[in-house]
Amino acid sequence: MKTKFTRLNLAERIQIEKLFDKGLSASAIAVLLGRHKSTITRELKKTHYKTYLAINAHIRSVKICSAKNYGRSKISGNKKLYDYVVKHLRKRWSPEQISLSLKKKFPNQKHMQTSHETIYYFVYLHSKKSLKEELIKQLRQQRKTRGSRHTKAVRDVKITDRISIDERPEEVKGRQIPGHWEGDLIVGKEHGSYIGTLVERSSRYVILVHLQNKEAATVRKAFEQELAKLPKIMRKSLTYDNGTEMAQHKLLTKTTKMKVYFTHPYSPWERPTNENTNGLLRDYFPKGTDLSVHSKAHLKKVQKELNERPRKVLDVRSPIEVFKELILDKIPL
Question: Which residues pair with 207 in a beta bridge?
């Protein structure tokens, strides 16, 4: 049966921009978007494979004369909807998260529901200049918070007695069993400052760890301090890359009772939850900035904000909601 052709929408073009900016090929982008390679190739050819800007490409695609009023009356003409959209954009929610949240919060009020594409049009085409500049800065797809990931420096790995991810139980991969975490560091300007990140795979709940440096002892103690606050049922394993900051993994396991599994070298896709979360965190902590200026209190504020943000993958629930449910489900009353 012949596949029905549908034009690329704005959300897809934003994904193309994001993935192309990371250095992915047209073929790889096509697979991730579920599109034919020729569709992506044709789209990128329009810019001669140079800088691709989603909103510019989309405005060219749909006639600007018909797009002028798109979204204006729907959002700007409804104060309650307008306030809700602007409020949550300022909280760094994506248009898709806002759209899904509106449907969940106002299931029987069509006037309080709008598509994520309408929200994008509202931001880029219809908001007043000062508000537009502010909201565009808040959008998580903002280009300047991203950079090519394939330029990551090669690290000299000196970790003994590592347990390979190949030995990790299958239950971890499935996400049904809570208490399995992924960890990493966000690196600041000139590799001189760091923030530790721990993400629970089932709930996507994130913990931000304040670090003075990336020495193995410093990272271990800081991670232990945060993990010790969790109930035992939420401390099963930690999957990490080959960073030398995890050289004291055996001591971490002894203290927390959590097995530490190491991914294969240069395989960030083996920690997908953490990689995705680090991308979200770059909105708050842009690359090339000094991370040491952020206090513990500020890290906890960002942690709270991110954990309260609804996720499509969690059926429009927030990580903190799911995390609490998982704990209550496992603790007998």
Answer: 198
Closest CA to 246 of 222, 281, 266: 222
Rounded-to-integer distance, Cα 225 and Cα 180, Å: 17
**Contact, 321 vs 208, CB < 8 A?**
no
Amino acid at 145: T
Could you tell me the two tokens for 326? 């998982």
State the Cα–Cα distance between residues 277 and 189, nearest whole angstrom: 19
Report the percentage of the chain scoring pLDDT > 70: 84
Which residue do the tokens 């979200």 mark?
280
Decide if pLDDT at 86 tops 60.
yes
C-alpha distances out from residue 62 to 7, 9, 13, 27, Å: 10, 10, 13, 25
Q: Quick check: helix, strand or coil at residue 46?
A: coil
User: What secondary structure letter does DSSP report for 182?
Assistant: E
- DSSP class of residue 5 equals P
Distance of CA 322 to the CA centre of its chain: 17
* pLDDT bracket for residue 154 (50, 70, 90): very low
Mean pLDDT for the stretch of residues 97-121: 88
Structure tokens that stand for 295 in this block: 């206090």
Rounded CA separation 179/239 (Å): 11
**Mean pLDDT lowest among 30-34, 49-53, 103-107:** 49-53
Report the pLDDT averaged over residues 20-29. 86
CA distance 307 to 297: 15
Structure pTM?
Answer: 0.62
Question: What single letter denotes the amino acid at residue 291?
Answer: L
| CA separation for the pair 14, 112 (Å, rounded) | 25
Instruction: Give per-residue pLDDT as tens, 234-251.
Output: 999 999 998 999 999 999
Question: Minimal CA–CA distance to 312: which of 101, 147, 155?
Answer: 101
